[in-house]
Amino acid sequence: MSSKFNPSKLMMLGSLKSRLLLGLSCALLLLAALVLGMAWQVGKTMVQETNMAHLRYEANLIADEITQQVEHRFQALDRLSDVIGVSNNAQWLSHQLGRNDALLAWFDAIVISDTQGRILSDWPVVQGRAGLETQELEYFKTLKGTRRPYVSEPFVGRASDIPMVLISVPRFDNAGQFAGFIGGVVSLDSSGLFNRLATIRLGSKGYAAVVTATGKVLYHPDRSLINNADFDSKASPLLDLALDGWQGDGVGRLLDGRMGLQSYSQVWPASWVVGLYLPTEQAQLPLSGFIHKLGWIWVVIALLMMPGLWWLLARILAPLNKLEAQIGDVGLGRRAYVDLETNMQELEQVATTFNRVEGERQQLVGHLQEREAFLDSVLNASPQGMFVADFGGNITYMNPALLDVLGIEANMPMEAWLEQIHIDDRSGAKDMWMHSLKTGNDYVRQLRFIRSDKEMLWLDIHARVVMLTQGGHSLGLVGVVKDITERREQEALQRWEAEHDPLTGLLNRRGFERRLEEAFADFQKTSTPSALLLFDLDHFKPINDEGGHALGDEMLRRIAQVVAWEVRRSDHVARQGGDEFGVLLPSCTLGQAERIAESLRQAVSEVSVVHEGKEYTVTLSIGVTCFDETDTTVDAALSRADAASYDAKGEGRDSVVVKLPKAQDPMTLFE
């Protein structure tokens, strides 16, 4: 065996050497995948903890800075409140605001209101702002109720069209009662509240945001979200939790649907929440690059190792080639047994086992030849149809009796005569055959076979696995085929006679009741509507009395033909006994059933028989009903239809009466 490495041989995976090399390569790849996977998991945890610590630090730092900004503004407004006191003189208040013009470094505008929320003065003065009523606005109600400094919900300035908030403190009179408020309007764009957010660097996709406790966005890189009523905080579960007062960090879904690291900190004086966000893929980007490089290193190492592995396997498997050559010689008759000199215990065991199996095979071949000769004689002489199949499922022999029954030639391909099995039986017969081959169970099946002359046969097939006495090896299956066509036809005739009236050919009471039960079961399962007609013949007795039973039988046969002609092909007509008839109308509404009943009544009224010059006719009194959800058995519907038939007779006969269940019958309202 050549030990020279040839890459083209790697594609020949039929050789043991190639498969072993492939197995070793797969093991290396699996080891590489395991190492890379562990590195990825450990690295991902470390990267996440590091980034989370950074986000937590930044979020707390930003929240502290914004808290100081808000508190400084509260303190400035408190000092201004101490300066102006409780005076509501608009001119004096404007004068004081002008003197404190330095507050505009903190605010875009300052307003002062009285106890009722009316703006008394503002600075800088804006036409129309003085005199505004604020008592119905949320920030005035909150200030008056809590009597504590408050930051309003964001709003858009009427003149500037810029999002703003109102930072306000309450005013108190000498008695300590609420006397209005002093508020500073702060622009969310230019006030400096969120200057710290603009300096944060969280990679190319990380960002910071500030929202109110009610879910209004104050700061966000996407300017369209600021003060947007359509903003849905529930899209991010951690944010929704932070709006309820929680502060902390975790991994969750961001507003855009991506997963990311999140950290939240509260700005308590303003009821704001600071959030820092870093998408997971951004956080893991350095780790992904490292794992990618490490993977390529593994690939290069594996490729460098393959020539050495190929040479090593060639050395190890050299004795296997010798074993292969000796086994080939045994098969050609050049050797009687394998004689392998090697220090590999596994190959020695293979050689010993092969020699033992070869000895047994020679004995089995001798027995098999004797048994085949005996079996051929038995099968050819048997008058019973028989066949033999190998354990692959292919029928290898059919005796003359079976060929004669099936009407086929011995050389006819198996695929051709299998197509002559009735299409409704073909799939089931094949599935059962494959099951018997797999499990070793007997094959027992009855099926229809269409001969070449179009005659249909019913065949009973019984096949059994044949086992050898030595070693329990299977030779295949031997089967017996019986022609049971005559028996099946007799059974079908008996079944028909058991459920049909011999006089009219209609269903008898037993057949009718069976179909009623089947229709009622369908109704209970799928609510498929079915209607029921019951009737007997009016004026039938004089026909029997005056013309005899032969004339009565003739009238019954004619009526049966007319009724069967008038109903649908799917309907079931029965003669239940004497002159009593029933019709089951599956998948039929009550309205359709009533129209069919009318057509039956009209058609039967035209049927007549003649005896000694006298013409006899009959009429129908038909009761109509349908299955109902309140019915627990078929008898309930039969009772309604029977009662309706009696009602039809009571109304003068030759009529149709529809009877509904009591729950639906409008006449029950008057009972």
TrEMBL record:
Enzyme Commission designation: 2.7.7.65
Domain PAS: 371-440
Single Gene Ontology MF annotation: diguanylate cyclase activity
Class of this enzyme: transferase
Membrane-protein topology: Multi-pass membrane protein
Domain GGDEF span(s) in chain numbering: 528-661
Record localization: Cell membrane
Keywords from the UniProt entry: Cell membrane, Membrane, Nucleotidyltransferase, Transferase, Transmembrane, Transmembrane helix
PROSITE patterns named among the record's database cross-references: GGDEF, PAC, PAS
Regions crossing the membrane: 294-313
Domain PAC: start-end pairs: 443-496
UniProt xrefs under Pfam families: dCache_1 (PF02743), GGDEF (PF00990), PAS_3 (PF08447)
NCBIfam families, A to Z: GGDEF (TIGR00254), sensory_box (TIGR00229)
Name of the molecule in the record: Diguanylate cyclase
Organism: Halomonas qaidamensis
